[in-house]
Amino acid sequence: MIKIADLKPRTLMGPGPSDVHPRVLRAMAQPTIGHMDGQFMQVLDDIRDMLKAVFQTSNDLTLAISGTGMAGMEACLVNLLEPGDAFLVCINGVFSARLKEVAERIGARVTAIRVPWGQVFTPAMVQVALEQHGPFKLVGLVHVETSTGALQPIKDISAVVHAAGSLLLVDTVASLSGVEAAVDDWQIDACYSGSQKCLSSPPGLAMATFSPAAVHAITHRNTPIGSWYFDMMLLRKYWGSERVYHHTPPVNLYFALHEALSMALEEGLPSRWARHQAAHAALKTGLARLGIGYLTDPGCIAPTLNCVAAPAGIDEAAGRKQLLNEFGIEVGAGLGDFKGKAWRIGLMGEGADQRHVDALLSALTVIAPKG
Amino acid sequence: MIKIADLKPRTLMGPGPSDVHPRVLRAMAQPTIGHMDGQFMQVLDDIRDMLKAVFQTSNDLTLAISGTGMAGMEACLVNLLEPGDAFLVCINGVFSARLKEVAERIGARVTAIRVPWGQVFTPAMVQVALEQHGPFKLVGLVHVETSTGALQPIKDISAVVHAAGSLLLVDTVASLSGVEAAVDDWQIDACYSGSQKCLSSPPGLAMATFSPAAVHAITHRNTPIGSWYFDMMLLRKYWGSERVYHHTPPVNLYFALHEALSMALEEGLPSRWARHQAAHAALKTGLARLGIGYLTDPGCIAPTLNCVAAPAGIDEAAGRKQLLNEFGIEVGAGLGDFKGKAWRIGLMGEGADQRHVDALLSALTVIAPKG
């Protein structure tokens, strides 16, 4: 049996989790307190306020969810969609495809439009789908596709979606606090993210925010919300002034998220976005020198998730294994269409700095000197 | 804004979370590693093996779920029940009532039988319900009702349930490792628990195990499992040798659970049950001296969750507040039928010792000297 204290530390440069700062690990190790303790209510209030700042929203219903990023996706869909509701999903990778699968299990009528992996949608594409197959209650988009590293512009599509009378759902799991994601300015109705990516808190929490229009849709359902665990109308009674017990949240993960959000806001969002961009630029330049290029369309490369062609001349799986075992560096494998072809290099949160970029580039000169 | 490092430590004697040992907090604070890292696969394998020991089962499908105890409940129900399936639930408190609510949202046809709060069911009661309203696909029971402290005997009811051709689901959230809960010997088909009670790991993980008959029911469904996040057939491909990525589990909570399970098995289950029983006996004697009695039926008092009448002569809410603020001791409020009448005193995991009992009794001589 393994001893946890003996685990080898890693340099996390995969698609998440990202490296966690010692401040956050220490906060997480604070002795557990009760979930109905007044002290914990302050922790919750702080988290809500900080999440509103990070999501750039004034939405009252902004909270953390006691599950991972995928729990955030399911929570949004199961609250917003009833069986039979029409949902348009824009698929350009694994996570947007999951929007479809989760919604179908809820019983929604799902229409999908697709672009090739590594590309993003134009407002015109969404417009055509809305006209041909609408009306839709909800339209779903992924901001940064973790499987392809494509950064989807949101604002212009949002205008098209709202002009058609639909609500807009956006996945910001691999973007929030790493690149701009402005919920109110972009008129996003429901938005979820995960703790373990650009916020560099340990995995296990999703964060979500719902616009007044989204809340209206939830409160005017004809059928009960299919999930009790993810029921936002119950959860908001715990997060709100009523403090009605719902479930026992992961107290120590909330401590960690509190500290990670504090650090993000101490840095300031624009500085944080700039840091992610600078790390990405340095990585891209260094990879080019090694002959390693991106699989993502040049016009939509996300700084946070760098999806590159696995280096030529080496076995991609063996190369990743060597990186992990000899250099302690984790990068991600390709998924789906990119399986066996791609490496996914995350520059997220604590990982978005020159130290991480240099560690990887230096290791690559040994492993894949010719690219 | 609160600083996490400034939070006042508490002595946790409510219905959970329970106090967490420093060994477990330290394990949790180990730097995060990736969820596809070979090291983490070893952590998962160890956790599965240790959970099998703690659940006293040889079930292959034994795993942790990335959510709280209530996620464990929902996960069991959403996998085992399809819309229209008949489910018999035995309600004697808040958590058994939740079984009904969660199952109804899934679309199951739920029949409930009830006994007053603080009491448990006899095999004859279940037998009658099975005959009058059956057949049922599934029967649900709560082992220790956290809202009443009632300890439900399982084995004889299990025989009745299986004779009727039903599957048996048991909630062991407030019992597992604190009192015996023998999944195989008692022929429990699906059993879930939570990390933060008698195992004294921080909240945020559920643990569950499924018998071959339960797995057969899941694999022979006519409809897809309603939840993607809780889909056991996807989760077992990650926990099994295929290691197919599903979601990013809360890596650090798994570290904590690994350490907490190690500690439970180092102590040995029979010793651990005896320790819980001894702490309970000491508390009961001390409370009697103060004139404080149990609301639970004398024949079915659980050692882990002591549901007592709020001390006479003091305001129960003010008394709990005083305990927390002046003595740092958390006890739980009454729920539902017991709201305003009960205090729920947990003696679970690290909290099941003389030190905790003495701390509470000593504080009570100040707060409620006459009982």
Textual characterization of the structure:
The structure is a homodimer of 371-residue chains. Chain A is an alpha/beta fold and 371 residues long. Chain A folds into two domains: 114 residues, Aspartate Aminotransferase, domain 1 (Alpha-Beta Complex), CATH 3.90.1150.10; 244 residues, Type I PLP-dependent aspartate aminotransferase-like (Major domain) (Aspartate Aminotransferase, domain 2), CATH 3.40.640. Chain A is 40% helix and 14% strand. In chain A, the strands form three sheets. The first copy, chain A, has a seven-stranded mixed beta sheet, with helices on both faces. A three-stranded antiparallel beta sheet of chain A has the order 9-12-11, covered by helices on one side. A two-stranded parallel sheet of chain A has the order 1-10. In chain A, helix 4 links the parallel strand 3 and strand 4. In chain A, helix 1 packs antiparallel against helix 9. The radius of gyration of chain A is 20 Å and the shape is globular. Chain A starts with 10 loop residues before the first strand and ends with a helix. At the A-B interface, helix 1, helix 2, helix 3, helix 4 and helix 9 of A face helix 1, helix 2, helix 3, helix 4 and helix 9 of B.
